[in-house]
Amino acid sequence: MTLVAAAIVPAAPALLPRMGGAADPLRPLRQVSREAVADAVASAPGAGVVVVSGWGHSDSGGAARRPVRRDWPLDAPSGAERFTTGQVPPGALPTGLEIGRQLLADGTEARLVSVADDAAPHECLALGADLVADGPTVLVVVADGSAKRTVKAPGHLDERAEGFDAGLSRALAAADADALAALDPVLADELWCRGRAALQVLAGAAGGSPFAPSVDHDEAPYGVGYLVATWTPPPRSRPTTQ
Amino acid sequence: MTLRLGRRSFADTDLLVMAIVNRTPDSFYDKGATFGDDAAMARVDAVVEQGADLVDIGGVKAAPGGEVSVTEEIGRVVPFVAAVRQRHPDLVISVDTWRAEVAREALAAGADVLNDAWGGADPELVDVAAEHDAALVCTHTGGAAVRTRPFRTGYESDVVGQVVAGVVRYAERALDAGVAQESILIDPAHDFGKNTHHTLEITRRLDEHVATGWPVLVSLSNKDFVGETLDRPVDERVVGTLATTAVSAWLGARVYRVHEVAETRQVLDMVATMRGDRPPTRTIRGLA
Question: What Gene3D superfamilies has UniProt attached to this entry (chain A) (predicted)?
Answer without folding.
Answer: LigB-like
